[in-house]
Design brief:
Elements: H1 2-11, E1 28-36, E2 39-47, E3 54-58, H2 70-74, E4 82-87, H3 92-96, H4 109-126, E5 132-138, H5 139-150, E6 155-163, H6 167-185, H7 188-197, H8 206-222, H9 240-258, E7 282-287, H10 295-303, E8 310-315, H11 324-338, H12 342-345
Parallel strand pairs: 3-4, 3-5, 5-6, 6-7, 7-8
Antiparallel strand pairs: 1-2, 2-4
Length: 348
Amino acid sequence: MFRSKLMAALCALMPFCAAAACTPGQPVHGKGYVSIGDSRQWLTIDGADCANPVVLVLHGGPGNPLSPFGRQIFGGWERDFTVVQWDQRAAGMSYGAREPGAAEEQLSIERMRDDGIAVAEHLVKLLDKRRVILLGGSWSSILGVHMVKLRPDLFQAYVGSAQIVSYLENSRMAYDKVLAMARQGGDQEALGALEALGAPPWTNPRNAGVLRRIVRKYEARLAEPAPPAWWIPAAEYATPAAQTNYENGEEYSYLQFVGLKGDGMYSAVDLPKLGRTFAVPFYLFQGESDLLTVPELARRYFDRIVAPDKKFILLPGVGHEPNQKLLDAQFSLLKERFHRPAATAGRP
């Protein structure tokens, strides 16, 4: 069912109508809704050569899909990789696919993990690959680790950034770091807001948003911003309906993430409990100026990981949000490790 539906979407746009017919140099482009679990979810696929390795991009948030901006951000990758954007359950275009009047669904890490695994399984079949590369950051660094831990057979590598490790450790270290910066800089506004919050854990869902705004304020002084052109949505995502779905999905997913009483998906995150041995290469790109998922904690987690290949890359001028420096560093490593000329690549 999935393959026939997505192939119909692909064939409407280009002649790549059967994975078995893929020949080196043949482009692949498509977009459409597909059945994942019990819901319809949105995928886009773009690449200059169907023989190239596949990169499945996991968006953050969890309600912030990158599909509206995918070609602006990852367009330069398409010569060497087939890039897949996936609007996760209850986000973006997938949020808009819900039946009118449908009851709000409960999100969980396990449910999202299983969705992601189903997407990877279908991409493997659809694009005639053995495995795909998984790219995740922030919320999707949680999701990505859960996916590769459960089904390493589906993935060539995990590539993380803004790596979350543990709810308590990440929250407390972020809070302590910006509190110290506010005190040192005499920032009475930020200091008052942070002291009013008190140290995490929190039961008020607004508290995480307050911390996030202060983090953005300080990171803006330390990190390079992303190019403004990144955030101009493609035409089909700029309609009033699409914008409303994006905003509503973002709000809904955020509340599911933090929970109305601090009991959302984030509260259960403790990645070391999943185990430290991975059967796939494990690469972490961490912004030196990331004040939300601080590099010290990510490095401590990384150092104890056992994997067939691993690398930790600390990037000056990069904060929690992606920017061009991060994208260039990720692309460089992936091209070095995984890209091969189509004539010799076989099935990645």
